[in-house]
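Hello,

Following up on my earlier ticket. Below are the two sequence lines again, exactly as submitted.
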Amino acid sequence: MHNKTLTELSLGLQAKTFSSVELTQFFLNRIDQHQQLNAYITVTPELALAQAKAADQRIANGRSDLLTGIPIAQKDIFCTQGVTTTCGSKMLANFTAPYNATVIEKFNQAGAVMLGKLNMDEFAMGSSNETSYYGAVKNPWNINTVPGGSSGGSAAAVSARLAVCATGTDTGGSIRQPASFCNLVGLKPTYGTVSRYGLMAMASSLDQIGPIAKTVGDAEIIFNAIKGKDPLDSTSADSPAYPPSGEKKIIGVPESFLSEGVDDEVLKNFYEAVHKFRDMGYEVVNVDLSLLKYAVACYYVLMPAEASANLARFDGVRYGLHKDGKDLLEDYQRTRGEGFGPEVRRRIMLGTYVLSAGYYDAYYNKANDVRKLIKMAYQKVFDQVDVVLTPTAPTPAWKIGEKVNNPLQMYLEDIFTIPANLAGIPAMSIPAGKTSDGLPLGLQLTAPHFREDLLFSFGKSFGKL
Amino acid sequence: MSLTADDVNKIAHLARLGIDKQDVAAYANDLSGMLDLMTRMAEVNTDHVEPMAHPMDQAQRLRADAVTELNHREAFQAIAPQVEAGLYLVPKVIE
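Thanks for your patience. The regenerated structure is below:
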């Protein structure tokens, strides 16, 4: 049951082979049996069973769609009305969202069942899910290793079959890297295609919402269900449709960009994947994206700058944690000092510094210039090729605790995923094999703006091999 | 680029972030390392580059000047740390 795809489960529900209540209870039991993974922050069994009952009714009335009655789980970064929404932080330990994010509304309208809220790095800041106030998440493939981050709970839950699929958010790789570490499909859509209303913002020019799923087909279904322009998010946009064409597609590989700092097994696995595509008749060409070696530096100016502004809202006055000081200034300092964990504090300080008087030009403006050049480099490459192929991450999952004390080393893990966020283009990680130790490896496909269709078609043909 | 303890304290003040004295040296070290990474961008020639304003070169969308939000004061204040008579409470800032 738990290994079935979304489509298979949907057909089972329609045929009344099983009910949504049965399916939901099945997953709730699995969640209960796998608590040691720490994938969920909040499980919502009563809500889930009520939604399942309503879904069964809707199916009986013949008004269902693909997601009706399907038990899914949400990253705890989306506001869910009446449900605790922590964003992985002590700051929001007691925060009950007063309204629903658009993404939550879309799942509700489709009749999906929410099993609960998933663990994540605090305010989505991390690549290993170890910065969560609610404890590290364990990778189901080897419980001594990290599941990746920041959507680590999402990846662990889908991988351990504690939900049919899950949502994640991706600012610099937070959907794709955990998907890669947990043998799943993770899609970061084009910037703006999914409404961010009700999402706790980290870096607003980079954040995107997307699915983590077992198969490319499942990811595509979720993406189609949550995308679309939303009056409540002025950066959201409708994506144009691209009808399938029979043309032979070309794959670009940025070889010089792959020459440094990539684990041997990752590189070997990657070139095997390239050969597979060649054997299928795809043309593979070398492309120049040497500028991407500056992507991490560029990102670690822009992301903290935007995050320091976005997180200024946590003032202990309107919601969340409040700590008393001797005056208003000390109220702020104590609330924010105690409410935020070390990594969040570090990024707020970095962002504050690069935006401060005298440094703004040298850091923030320079980074925006470099960002523009990176985007232009991609545009040039996409004149020649349809998709760009890289590994998703330079290493497989590492041991829990291994990189906690070296933030810079952790940041460099995002080298292959950050560029797509800077350029605003869609990218997807698909399972590509395992290391000799049995840890999953991912392959990342990147396409031009709004060309998620290319990612799905390449992803599906690779999966068939 | 190497930050001093004074720099760290100044940044923390700007960010309204209370930090422990014993952590200041570690912050200075971490932040300096990150700033070193950023200075690598100096190698890139960005003369005559228009900074990126939006990933899709979109202009800010406009909407009709109409009321779209209902009053949610009660729901919002129900989750506030301290409220009284429909107002958020903060310490006195004007003597």
